């Protein structure tokens, strides 16, 4: 059963696989080719990203950037659409830049991004599972140092609940809580996972 586009929007009224590359890419800021901000899995069938050559691979200790995570999300979306189309229809792998906008953007911009994520072409709210990258960058400092993951379960038969996966437990609690709150999720649980053993594997986890 789909929730109609007229349903209450949580943003209304709020205040405002690794083989890729470079340590500089960890900065969370829009790129010229990504000004529109379409979340993967939001009604458009993604094209297979080009295969990257050796010159674009990450070194063993380089950090993942937002574009690396987004490329993996595009591949995951395509595979899910091929193997489990019904599940894919209700799953959104959200672009890291859009996740940052949802957390820190002006209310109008965040609301527009939210609507593009959750509504299908017929304006039905069909987004049941949201995968949102979380970074410790902020509005005044766009340079982040750590990635974690927020999974939001929005199935219509229950209240939304968020699960936070952080390989350095506690590091990104604040950013995850902020993002969940801006999306109207009041139940946030810390999910168990293996801790990372170095300073560069957080995006891989």
UniProtKB/TrEMBL annotation:
It holds the Pfam family Peptidase_C48. GO terms for biological process: protein deneddylation; proteolysis. Residues 18-34 have a biased composition (Basic and acidic residues). GO terms for molecular function: cysteine-type peptidase activity; deNEDDylase activity. It comes from Bradyrhizobium yuanmingense. Residues 18-205 form the Ubiquitin-like protease family profile domain. The keyword Cell membrane does not apply. Residues 1-54 are annotated as: Disordered. Keywords: Hydrolase, Protease, Thiol protease. This is Ulp1 protease family, C-terminal catalytic domain.
